[in-house]
Specification:
Largest sheet of chain B: 4 strands, antiparallel
Structural class of chain B: mainly beta
Shape of chain B: elongated
CATH architecture of the largest domain in chain A: 2-Layer Sandwich
CATH superfamily of the largest domain in chain A: ATP-grasp fold, B domain
CATH superfamily of chain B: RNA polymerase II/Efflux pump adaptor protein, barrel-sandwich hybrid domain
Shape of chain A: globular
Helix content of chain B: under 10%
Largest sheet of chain A: 8 strands, antiparallel
Number of helices of chain A: 15
Number of strands of chain A: 21
Radius of gyration of chain A: 21 Å
CATH class of chain B: Mainly Beta
Strand order of the largest sheet of chain B: 1-8-6-3
CATH class of the largest domain in chain A: Alpha Beta
Strand order of the largest sheet of chain A: 14-13-10-11-12-15-20-18
Number of helices of chain B: 0
CATH topology of chain B: OB fold (Dihydrolipoamide Acetyltransferase, E2P)
Number of strands of chain B: 8
CATH architecture of chain B: Beta Barrel
Strand content of chain B: 35-45%
Distance between the termini of chain A: 41 Å
Oligomer: heterodimer
Helix content of chain A: 25-40%
Radius of gyration of chain B: 14 Å
Order of helices and strands of chain B: EEEEEEEE
């Protein structure tokens, strides 16, 4: 096992990793930018060191400063969390070059899977059905038109090195293509340092179902079941749950019967990745359309925001499992012989943003009292009196509940969110509660159009006074 | 008679990412005037009404506060008789935040 792990991240995920390091008896080094000095989780780490100015490029995204911190503290491993440098294979190589371990899949895997076009080619070679897509676009308009025509409109223009729902543009017809490509490409460079964009089939309101994967360094890969993350706004998940509610069996209102086809697919994916030697944590994302066809979307070679729902239903500490796998433990010793799904878990991402316009909200948390109680877990990097600055994303907290079944979990989440007292910034709590109240969510009829539908439904007083059509920021069409 | 003026205010603290108009430019309702970046999201500020840009008070990179006036548009009387008091970012599209999840 490692002696000392540097946590190269901030906020809720830094807090989460530091907690597990402590339970493993491993010393932790937290890092913080000027904006995060005094953050509550820093006190939980054995050491906390400053890494520079507030803008992420100068601190959390600055490889030189982080590598120097590894050297100075003598850490023998680095945990990247998610976001920031978690999917930078170049950074992972450099950490390994220092003689420290990058906690995640080996850099060659990051290189392969973090590039969406290459990842799709791998999935197709493994015999997994994939979303239709082009190769990387050269910028030639004729080539782009031909690619779009063969995929069929509408198409998404996506950054090849992207992730997290960023920088994606929809082209509904040929006329939209050139603008969408230019915007996507420039944003791709700004966000991911790579101009590559490609076209992908835009499915009309699919379900988003993803599979939690865990591998070791000895060729073993197992799946820890699926999560349904269909409830999204702006292509970003706001609610995730496990197991996925069975789509067709929602008539009884609980929708919590397990979906056997997904379990089979999970096993197929795990054995395909085992053949290739996948060697740490990862998530395989799929889209399921109305007729039940499952298509590979992409793979995230890292810990994911929604990991906590899988932890709740399986009882496995995924961060500990990921760290132990990176340290060279084999899967047989990390996981119990058989892992079962117990009950139902749901996670809500609480964002500091206006629930109607979806515009982020900065400010000082004059009140911040997260819910607690049986079956309720909250992950946050904030505390009362702390400030949300423009420098980082607006995730305030994740609220995770575990119940006996889906209806029980929904009830617990509703109570937890209703009891979450926040003042000083606006939050999406009213939107989350509106989703939980909606007939469609309760029936388990999930798809990526659910939030837009709720926001557009003028007749339904979703957020107190009701929503004005066309107001504020648009969700855009769903992927 | 003075044409109605619209203050274009930032709905959130952040940094000016893009200034797409200059003083004297005619703009149409819904046209993006400036883009403010905050919390890894681009927030476009659009013209609430057609008119002419009278003032641009920021440059790219400026840090701005919530509610700060970034530009002033004078509405055209012919095109937009009733000017709202402030430009809301309606119809704009915010780009998704940084990868996480």
């Amino acid at each position: 096992m490692f002696q000392k792990v540097l946590v190269a991240n901030r906020g809720a995920v830094a807090a989460r990793v530091i907690r597990t390091l402590r339970s493993l008896g491993v010393r932790s080094v937290a890092v913080y930018s000027d904006a995060d000095a005094g953050a509550p989780y820093l006190a939980e780490a054995d050491t906390a060191i400053p890494i520079g100015p507030a803008p992420a490029r100068a601190s959390y995204l600055n490889p030189e400063i982080l590598l120097d911190a590894v050297r100075r503290t003598g850490a023998d491993a680095l945990h990247p969390g998610y976001g920031f440098l978690a999917e930078s294979s170049g950074f992972a190589w450099r950490v390994q070059d220092l003689g420290a371990r990058f906690i995640g899949p080996s850099p060659r895997w990051i290189e392969l899977m973090a590039h969406k076009v290459r990842a799709r080619e791998v999935a197709a070679a493994l015999g997994l059905p994939t979303v239709r897509g082009s190769g990387v676009l050269s910028g030639d308009v004729g080539e782009m038109r031909a690619a779009a025509a063969s995929i069929g409109f509408p198409v998404m223009v996506k950054p090849a090195a992207g992730g997290g729902g960023l920088g994606m543009h929809v082209a509904r017809c040929e006329r939209d293509l050139v603008d969408a490509m230019a915007s996507a490409s420039s944003l791709a460079y700004r966000l991911f340092g790579n101009w590559d964009v490609y076209l992908e089939q835009l499915l009309p309101h699919p379900r988003h179902v993803e599979f939690q994967i865990l591998g070791d360094r000895f060729g073993a890969v197992r799946s820890l079941f699926e999560r349904d993350c269909s409830v999204q706004r702006r292509h970003q998940k706001i609610i995730g749950e496990s197991p996925a509610p069975a789509a067709a069996s929602a008539s009884d209102g609980s929708g919590d019967r397990h979906w056997p086809a997904l379990a089979e697919l999970a096993v197929r994916i795990a054995s395909a990745l085992a053949r290739l030697g996948y060697d740490n944590i990862g998530t395989v994302e799929t889209l399921i359309d109305a007729d039940g066809t499952v298509r590979f979307l992409e793979m995230n070679p890292r810990l994911q925001v929604e990991h906590a729902v899988t932890e709740a239903v399986t009882g496995v500490d995924l961060v500990a499992a990921q760290i132990r796998s990176a340290a060279g433990d084999d899967l047989g010793s990390i996981l119990p012989r058989s892992v079962a799904v117990r009950g139902h878990a749901i996670e809500a991402r609480v964002y500091a943003e206006d629930p109607e316009t979806l515009i982020p909200s900065c400010g000082t948390l004059t009140t911040f009292r997260p819910p607690s109680g049986p079956g309720v877990r909250v992950e946050t990097g904030y505390a009362e009196g702390r400030e949300l600055t423009p420098y980082y994303d607006s995730l305030l907290a994740k609220v995770v509940v575990h119940g006996a079944d889906r209806a029980d979990a929904i009830g617990r989440l509703r109570d937890a969110l209703a009891g979450f007292a926040v003042a000083g910034v606006r939050t999406n709590l009213p939107l989350l509660l509106a989703v939980l109240r909606s007939e469609r969510f309760r029936a388990g009829r999930l798809d990526t159009g659910l939030v837009s539908e709720l926001r557009a439904a003028e007749a339904v007083p979703v957020l107190g006074g009701g929503l004005r059509r066309g107001d504020g920021v648009s969700d855009g069409p769903s992927p | 008679m003075t044409p109605p003026r619209t203050d274009v205010r930032s709905p959130v603290a952040g940094a000016v990412w893009d200034v797409r108009v200059h003083v004297g430019q005619a703009v149409a309702q819904g046209e993006v005037l400036l883009v403010v970046e905050t919390m890894k999201v681009e927030v476009p500020l659009v013209a609430a009404a057609s008119g002419t840009v009278r003032r641009v008070l920021v440059v790219r990179g400026d840090l701005v506060e919530e509610g700060q006036v970034l530009a002033v548009v004078a509405g055209s009387l012919l095109l937009q008789p009733a000017a709202p008091s402030a430009a809301a970012p309606d119809g704009g599209g915010v780009r998704p935040p940084m990868p996480a999840g």
